[in-house]
């Protein structure tokens, strides 16, 4: 493929999404930075990458709103001409006892973390399917694989992403579109802000590689899955977690 590939990264203003946006832009992808609430962080990232002469655009969209996503994908096509890779990274987390989870808590968790993947994938496929090529990379979590106490709704949503990935990979395989999932382990992002140093030390000690992951670890995995090196890989759950779950 001689032309620059285009990647849409949801939730790209901070943490793992930001690291992916930086890596893909530096690898000469056209990058659409999606954000919703973190406008300043998104603009800072955009300006940083743009100042290096890299090909980036940004778009505010709530992944749980189909109309927003429809407009974002149309914007991407207008600006870059294609959508080659979609990374469904946007997500929220919440720690809460199961009996205290409200209907609103549960609905928001599912709407952002799972329905957002549904909306973004459907809208991107309008442009991938006619071209008979594309890659969708969904970001789940080790808690979608193993479950986390006091994060039942989060674990359920992330487990749903895994099931969606496997089923969609089977459906899209004949169209030469690969669908894979990354299930990160304990990664040093804002989602760990509620943990104290003692709790983080325990998590590190329980990781065979004896360190917590970084956003760059996940970005590197995403770059591989977006590349031609992964053309025979689909429907897989890859978990960069340092051995925390084996």
Mean pLDDT: 96
Helix segment count?
Answer: 8
Major pleated sheet: 7 strands, parallel
Low-confidence stretches: none
Apparent shape? globular
What is the strand content? Answer: 5-15%
End-to-end gap: 36 Å
Helical content class: 40-55%
What do you see in this structure?
- This protein has helices at 15-26, 39-50, 66-80, 103-131, 142-146, 152-172, 197-205, 215-226; strands at 6-9, 30-35, 56-60, 85-88, 134-139, 177-182, 237-238.
- The N and C termini lie far apart (36 Å).
- The chain is of the alpha/beta class and 246 residues long.
- It is globular, with a radius of gyration of 17 Å.
- The model has no long low-confidence stretch (mean pLDDT 96).
- It contains eight helices and seven strands, in the order βαβαβαβαβααβααβ.
- It has a seven-stranded parallel β-sheet, sandwiched between helices.
- Helix content is 47%, strand content 13%.
- α1 packs across α8.
């Amino acid at each position: 493929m001689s032309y620059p590939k285009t990647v849409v990264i949801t939730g790209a203003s901070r943490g793992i999404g930001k690291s992916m946006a930086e890596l893909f832009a530096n690898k000469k992808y056209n990058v659409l930075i999606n954000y919703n609430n973190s406008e300043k962080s998104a603009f800072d990232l955009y300006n940083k990458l743009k100042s290096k002469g890299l090909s980036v655009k940004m778009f505010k969209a709530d992944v749980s709103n189909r109309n927003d996503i429809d407009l974002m994908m149309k914007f991407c096509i207008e600006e870059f001409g294609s959508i080659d890779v979609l990374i469904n990274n946007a997500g929220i987390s919440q720690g809460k006892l199961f009996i205290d989870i409200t209907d609103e808590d549960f609905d928001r968790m599912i709407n952002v973390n799972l329905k957002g993947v549904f909306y973004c994938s459907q809208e991107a496929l309008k442009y991938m399917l006619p071209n008979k090529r594309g890659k969708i990379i969904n970001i789940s979590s080790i808690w979608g694989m193993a479950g986390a106490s006091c994060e039942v709704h989060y674990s359920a949503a992330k487990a749903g992403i895994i099931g969606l990935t496997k089923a969609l990979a089977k459906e899209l395989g004949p169209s030469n579109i690969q669908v894979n999932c990354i299930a990160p382990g304990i990664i040093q992002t804002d989602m760990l802000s509620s943990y104290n140093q003692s709790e983080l030390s325990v998590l590190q000690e329980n990781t065979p590689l004896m360190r917590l992951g970084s956003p760059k670890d996940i970005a590197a995995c995403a770059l591989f899955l977006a590349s031609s090196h992964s053309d025979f890989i689909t429907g897989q759950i890859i978990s960069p977690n340092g051995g925390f779950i084996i």
